[in-house]
Amino acid sequence: MSRLRTFIVEDNPTIRTQLIATLADLAQVECVGFADTEAEAVAWLQSHQDEWDLALVDLFLKQGSGMGVLAAVDQRPPSQKLVVISNYATRDVARRCRELGCDEVFDKSGDVDALIDYCQALR
């Protein structure tokens, strides 16, 4: 079974580490890189276009925002999925994220099982 090559955009090191470990163990996700700012995330995702299957994007970053990341990588192959993980996944936020090209939106604290299921379904 192939691993899902995933790039993580999250500025909290503790959350990022836990997310990487949880998804690796339960969903066969391979973290191919991470960024904690909008500029770093956009630069990596655009310069490594063939090296990721999934990007997990938090909305609030050390610099910039996840919304900026979504807008910058909205032109991608359908096989590459862009997913928001946020503690602020309200209905309005989710709608705006989808308008910017996001495939799914998950609440960081309450939707971890749903995120795992989503990742497993992509493999």
Automatic annotation (TrEMBL):
Q: What does the entry give for GO biological process? A: phosphorelay signal transduction system
Membrane-spanning segments: none
Q: Which SUPFAM superfamilies match?
A: CheY-like
Q: Spell out the PROSITE patterns in the cross-references.
A: RESPONSE_REGULATORY
In this entry, which stretches build a coiled coil? Answer: none
Recorded hits in Pfam families, A to Z, give: Response_reg
KW RNA-binding (keyword) present:
no
Q: Which UniProt keywords apply?
A: Phosphoprotein
The chain residues annotated with the modification 4-aspartylphosphate are D58
Which part of the chain is the Response regulatory domain? 5-123
| Keyword Phosphoprotein recorded | yes
Q: Which PANTHER family match?
A: CHEY SUBFAMILY, STRESS RESPONSE REGULATOR PROTEIN 1
Q: What is this protein called?
A: Response regulatory domain-containing protein
Q: What organism does the UniProt record list as the source?
A: Comamonas serinivorans
